[in-house]
Structure formats: structure tokens, C-alpha cells
Amino acid sequence: MIVLKEIIYLLRKEILLEWRQKYAISGILLYVLSTVFVVYTSFKKVEPNAWNTLFWIIILFASVNAIAKSFVQENSSRQLYYYSLANPTAIILSKIIYNSGLLLFLSFLSFIVFALVAGNPVKDNFHFFAALFLGSIGFSITFTFISAISAKANNSATLMAILSFPIIIPIILTLIKLSANALRLMQDTAVWKDIATLLAIDLILITMTFILFPFLWKD
Amino acid sequence: MRKNWWKALGVVILIYTYTAGLLIPLKPGILSVNPSNLNSGEEVTLTVIGYNTFFTKTESELRAWIKLDNEHAISATKIELVNDTKAHVSFNIPSNLPTEDKVTDASLVIDNDQDGAMVLPSKLTIKKTIDVNPNAEGWTNAPITDLNRKTGFSFPFRGILYETIRNTYFHVCLWFAMIILLITSVVHSFKYLRNFRMEDDQKSMSFTMVGTLFGMLGIITGSIWAKDTWGTYWTWEEVKLNMTAIALLIYLAYFVLRSSFDDYEKRARIAAVYNIFAFAALIPLIFVIPRLTDSLHPGNGGNPAMGGEDLDNTMRMVFYPAIIGWTLVGVWISQIVFRIQRLKEKIMEF
Amino acid sequence: MKKAKIFLQFILFFFCSNLIAQTENPDFARSIGKIYVVVAVIVAIFIGIIAFLIYLDRKLTKLENQINNK
């Protein structure tokens, strides 16, 4: 119960922090818009196959950029303050929940912008948005944890990408396949297996995060 | 010496696998047959090229069949031996084939007491020139009987693969050894997070380094083999190959991560955390990639594979020791890396 | 950073050995039941292990120098 209360407090803090420094969130939004526009101007006409891949690549890079800052933005003395106050599980969980929400918002926005600019080839909305939802959660868990790791290292910006991209590959491969199904680019009857795989990956990652984060946090 | 017996064992096993893997011959087999497109109702002479065969050194006559399916076969009318690996085999193909299809795949079966039975599966195609009732007269079946068996040690003869089947001992076992080393490394990372002893971190790092080395060797040798067998260096739909590639990316990133710390204690802790997290994230790939598409790799879609026919008992006698041998030698190398690392950190402390 | 650099060197090195194995005349590589593919694989493993040994050797030499200088 205490953990739950802590999570709510920390979540409120995250949102407040985001609200106070609006440049971060508006920067990410602008990033999504300009990426979509660059992709559109260089492709002109986007085939469904390319649409699928490009969409997830845009989401991938937007997510890395959005989450990379989550442990860097607060200086070490403030982190020490949190450490003395809150449970590490509450800290990582609140960050993951907050980042999941942020990524969900971001990916919906990218979808809308991308669909407006390059057309909307999605045929099966349920599967597509299920993929979007599960993908956002998986991205948020992985990137939040890796950003915690890379914040401990010195050159965190590059490190964030090289540490997280190999780990994200299983998730993004499954996501691309799921949404290829939703775009009717391929026919697969066992879509539920893919969704189960994504759920299982998210579960594995969140379990590992709970086990490992306390070791990362203490300094 | 008593403490180091396993190193000697590893080397002895590797010497055994290399000698056995290179010296044991392939089973005799049929390399090619010409012509391969036949028509019904014609008399045809096939030139058969054998591999590792001893056509002229046998006591019994060479026998040959064209096998249409499990029940129907045509027997050879005349056989003329040119030398040990070349023979002219004549067939009188009846005009009335017991099949429904216009074009039939057929296999060539050759048998003698020296080489045992050899099959060239589905290489021949027989076209029906005249359409006759499949149940009509004019067809005499020549059942394939009394096939001989090759005795002694030999590896299976497979089309496309031929001698490269030996790469199973040199390439595939590296992958297994890599996985074993990486798992050991993760175990040491867990140990470090439990006890915070620097030795565990150094061990974990050394196992990772040798595992990465084996992974690289596995990828290089794999792509040499793949280029020759499938005609591409790389296939994206393949589990082992892609898992190794992603593992390499992860562990190269691991070394970059390690190199970005100055403080040993902090480096050890964070490297251990990343090692465990990355390994856990790697495991789902085993289930993810096979679901993407059909694969070229052994075991999928009729490709030469492990298990079943392709890894027969003789191969197992070399393959399993090869895994053990490479693992032992890998542990040995990682111990050397570990000792160097320990020495280095000791010197740095002064 | 240094270690990453050496690993990159390894990769380049391996790719070179791979290319050498591939530039052989394809008919030659396919002669005698493709035995030269097996040879190429064994040579690649050998080169890899030797390269790693050289890397370890250099690392050890550096440590020895450090000890002697103290």
C-alpha cells in the first residue's frame, strides 16, 4: 500500500516536472512531426509495406529520444533525496507507467500524423492498436531501464542507443509482424500467439527490471 | 597437473574431433546423372557419376533401379562400368507408367555389396509422351529387394552438402559452446550481485569475451558455409544466425559500457545488471524468429538439418564431444583472460 | 573504448579472411565434394583463435611493462 502511495506521488511529480519544463515534451512532438514530414517528402508515395516499417522506425526513434532523459534530467543530489525517501520499486514503476503513457500518446499522435500525410492502410484496427499498446509498454520498460543504466555511465546519449537497440529487436520484429497482419500484408491465423509473445516479453522485462533495479539505484 | 586435467581433456577431445571429423569418409553416393529428363516409352542410357564409390571392385553385380514411388520401380537392362566412379546404366522405360501425373519425379537407386545402396532422390523427371490408361497392361514392376548396407564408419552423403557436412563439427558446435559460455557469464553476474566480489565480475567479463569470440567465429564460418550451400551469406529468417548477431551486438555494447566507467566497483555492478537484463531479453528471440517466415536453415522446409536422418549415430560420436571440447577449451581461454584481468586490476590498485 | 576498438579490428580481420575464402574460383571450391569449404571454415577458426591469442599477448606485455616500470 505504501508502495502504491509512493507511486502515485512520484507519478504526480513526473507530470508536474513535465508540465513545468514544456520544452522537453514539445521538443519530442516537433521531432515526430518533422520526422514524419522528412519521411513523406523523401518517399512521396508510401507503399503499405514501407509504411509499416517506417511507422515503427519513427516510433522507435521518438521513444528513445523521449525516454533517454528520464534519469538524466534530475541531478544526483535530488536523486539521492529520492533514494532516501522512496522505495526503488516505486521509483522505477512510476517512471515506467509515466513513460508508457507518454509513449502511448506519442505513438497515437505519430499514427494520426503519419496517416494524414501518407495515408492510412490499416485494415484491422483492433490488432493494430493492440500492437501499438503492447509495443509502447515494451518500449517503455526497456528504454526506461536502459536509460537508468546509461545515466550511470558518462557518455549516456550514444550509450542509450547502442545498449537498447539490440534488446528491442525481439519486440520490434514481433510488432512489425503483428501490424503487417493488421495491414493485411500477410495472412496469419495465429495472431494471438504474437500477442502472447509480446505479453511474455513485456512480463520477462518487467520482472528483470524489478529484480535488477535496486542494484542499479544504490550508489 | 592434477588441477589442470580438464584442459588436457579439452585438447584431447578437440584433437579427436578434428581427426575423426576430417578422416572418416563420406558414405558412397551418387553425384550426378545425365540425362535427367526422360520420356516414357524410350530406351535410355544414363551416365552415373558416383562419389567415394568402388563400382569395379565388387563381388556382386551392380544393380540399378528407377524408383517411381514406394511400390513401383523400373529395373536396369544393361550396366556398363567405366571405372570406380562412372557407369553407364541403360533403362527401358515402358510407355505405360503406373502414375496419374503427366510428369513424374523419380529417384535413382544403385546397389552393390561394396558401397551399399545409394539413392539420388527426385533428380529424374519422366514425361509421359503418350497418354495411356494407368491401369492398362504393359507395365512390369521390378521391386527393389535385397539392398546391401555399407559397413564401417562413415558420414551420411547428402546432396548439396557433400563434404561440408563435416562443418557440423567445426561450425555448429561453436554456437553451442558460445551459449554455454554466455550462460556461465550470466551466472557469474548473479554471483557478483549477491556477494559483490570483484573476482565474479572479472570471471563474468572473461566468459563474455570468449563467448563473443566464439560467436564471431560461428558467424564467419556460418556465412562461409551458407554462401556455398544456400548461395547467400546471410538469411534474415534464421534463429541461430540472428540470435548470434544480436548477441554480438549486445555484448559489444556490453564492452563499450564497461569501458565508459573509471570506478571498478560501479563498473562491475552496472555491467552485471546489463548482462543479466540483456540475456533475459535475448531468450524470447528463440520463439520470435521462427514465427516470422519459413527459414532456409537446417531443420526448416526440407533443408539439411540436425537430428533425424542428418545427425546419424556416427556423427553424434563426433558432434557431442566437439561441443564438450570447445566448451572446455573456451573455459580455459576465459580463465587466462580472467587471470590477466585480475592482474591488471591488482596493478591498478597500487 | 580501447577494447571496443580492438573488437572492431577483429571484425574487420574476420571479414577479410571471409573474403579471401570467397574469392576462390567457385569451381575450385566445389571440387572434391566441396572439401575446400570445410578447409576455409577450419582456417577461419584457426585465424580467429590466433588473432585472439595475439590480442591477449599484447595485453599481457602491457601489464609486464607496467610492473617493470614501477
Account of the 3D structure:
By secondary structure, chain A is mostly helical. Chain A has eight helices and no strands. Chain A has helices at residues 2-20, 22-43, 48-67, 76-85, 88-118, 125-152, 156-182, 191-217. In chain A, α3 (48-67) runs antiparallel to α5 and α3 (48-67) packs antiparallel against α7. The longest helix of chain A is centred in the middle third of the chain and has 31 residues, at 88-118. Chain A is globular and about 55 Å long. The mean pLDDT of chain A is 85. Chain B folds into two domains: 29-127, Immunoglobulin-like, CATH 2.60.40.10; 162-349, no CATH class. The two termini of chain B are 32 Å apart. In chain B, α3 packs across α7. The longest helix of chain B is centred in the last third of the chain and has 37 residues, at 313-349. In chain B, strands 1-3-6-5-4-7-8-2 form an eight-stranded mixed β-sheet, with no helix packed on it. The radius of gyration of chain B is 28 Å and the shape is elongated. By secondary structure, chain B is α+β, with helices and mostly antiparallel strands. Chain C has one domain (2-69). In chain C, α1 (2-23) runs antiparallel to α2. The chains are: A mainly alpha (219), B alpha+beta (350), C mainly alpha (70). Chains in contact: A-B, B-C. The interface between A and B is medium-sized, with 33 and 30 residues.
Topology readout:
The complex is a heterotrimer of chains A (219), B (350) and C (70).
Chain A: H1 2-20, H2 22-43, H3 48-67, H4 76-85, H5 88-118, H6 125-152, H7 156-182, H8 191-217
Chain B: H1 5-23, E1 29-34, E2 37-39, E3 43-51, E4 63-67, E5 73-83, E6 86-92, E7 103-112, E8 116-127, H2 167-195, H3 198-229, H4 239-259, H5 264-282, H6 285-288, H7 313-349
Parallel strand pairs in B: 2-8
Antiparallel strand pairs in B: 1-3, 3-6, 4-5, 4-7, 5-6, 7-8
Helix pairs in contact in B: 1-7, 2-3, 2-5, 2-7, 3-4, 3-5, 3-7, 4-5
Chain C: H1 2-23, H2 26-69
Helix pairs in contact in C: 1-2
